[in-house]
Each structure stands twice: as C-alpha cells, then as structure tokens.
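Predict fold of DUF3180 domain-containing protein; 150 aa.
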Amino acid sequence: MRPTGAAAPVGAGCLGLLGGWAIRPLSLQLGWTTPEVSWLQVLVLVFVAGVIAITAWVTWRELQVRGQWLEPHRAVNRLLMAKSCIVVGALLAGGYAGYAVSWLGIDAELADQRMARAASAALVGLVITGVAIWLERACRVRNDDDADLA
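Predicted 3D structure, encoded as tokens:
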C-alpha cells in the first residue's frame, strides 16, 4: 500500500472550496438564511485534530521508536483513519475557506464574524490533514532490508 498522494487532498480541497463558496449565494437565492459557523464547530474540529495527533504520536512511538508491532487489525484501523482524515480534512478546509471567501466584500452586520469563524475552521481543517498525514507516515513499518542498511 502506498502513501496518499497529493491528488486526493488537493482534489477534495478544491471540491470543498467550490461547495463552500456556493453555499451563501445558493441559500440566498432559495430564500434560506445563510448558515452560521459557530465556535463550537471549530472546537469540535480542534478535538478531532487532537485525537488524530495523539494517535499519530502513540503509533509513531510504538513502531518507530520502540520497534514494537501493532496487532494487524489496529494497524489497519489506524491506517484507514489516517487515509480518510487526509481527504476529509482537506474537504473541510476547502469548504470552510470557500464559505469565508464568499463573505469577502459583503457589507452585512455579521459578515466579519462569519468570515473569521469559517477561516478558523478552515485552518483547523488543514491541521487535521497534516496530523492525518503524520499518522499515515507513522503506520509505516521498516523492512528487514532497511534495518541492514542502517
């Protein structure tokens, strides 16, 4: 199995950017109120990033530092979590960034607030992508051939 390439997160980020940007004009056209990004949403994303980071650190320590092995089902679960969070984190980052961009130049009462919260959530989406890449890399196991070369 190969590490996740750049195409998947970049594609997900672009798709999220387009979708996030379209939410505000589409909701206005349909007569709905525009969605609000709350600090609770940002904090939930921070929590998710923290869980992934702790999992990456523990996995890296077990496999790379101590040279221990994980049970196969745990290794697969962590790798699956890493690969999915890379794509989902990029999708979230793009979606929230697109939503923040859609508020640029709008002279509304809460435009700055919505833009700041969405930008914060986009930043945390990038953090989720980064720590998920770290987790994916931490799941690598050394080959016996690699140990002979060191």
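The chain has five helices and no strands.
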